[in-house]
Write a structure and sequence with these properties.
- The chain is mainly alpha-helical.
- Helix 1 runs antiparallel to helix 2, helix 2 crosses helix 3 and helix 4 packs across helix 10.
- 58% of the residues lie in helices and 8% in strands.
- A two-stranded antiparallel ribbon has the order 1-2. Strands 3-4 form a two-stranded antiparallel ribbon.
- It is built from 10 helices and 4 strands, in the order ααββαααββααααα.
Length: 219
Amino acid sequence: MSVTIAEEFLLLAHSEDEGKPLIGTTELHAALAGALLAELAVRERVTIEGKTVSVVSPAPLGDDELDAVLTRIAEDRKERKPDWWVGRVSSSKLRQRLLTRLADRGVLSEKRGKVLGIFPTTKWPEADGRVEAEVRERVSAALTGAAPDARTAVLIALLYASKLDRKAFPGVDRNRFKEIAEGDWAGAAVAKAIAAVNAAIMAAVTTAATSAATTAGSS
């Protein structure tokens, strides 16, 4: 079954049995947006160099989410930084669409309920663990010494930037995540994309944390 890097990240970001997210919504949403940008770079539709995201080919990939982001970038007439695009693409609606898509394909199941009998809640436990098992096998191989391919390097870098690394793979030395996140495993262009996307995710998380602290301090 073909899944995007964003969907691979989403599977690792939710507990398998309860279907609850393992990280905060700010980190999760920013990482999903970053995953879409990074995959467009890996698949040679955009370049991410320094402060600018540029389209090199507008040809659709056949995936609704990737193609929607590619179209938005192609139609935008201004030079935009990666963190600008992460901020624009990041949303609870993106996460919901990806979760629903995985549920429709039988990878996850959707469990609706209520907290205290009042507040609606939805959990997304796994229905078919084969997709995540393949992802974990690939990531684990890289973390234990194998050279990662571009997709795996991007995924590991996203885990590191969002601080999901040790929650998804407890016991693994975080320095190995950092080594892969900062390495040149799939060529200079992909390495630059990974660095830019990770910086954008970290900036989004830092901004959210600063805003929350300021709000708390003024209340």
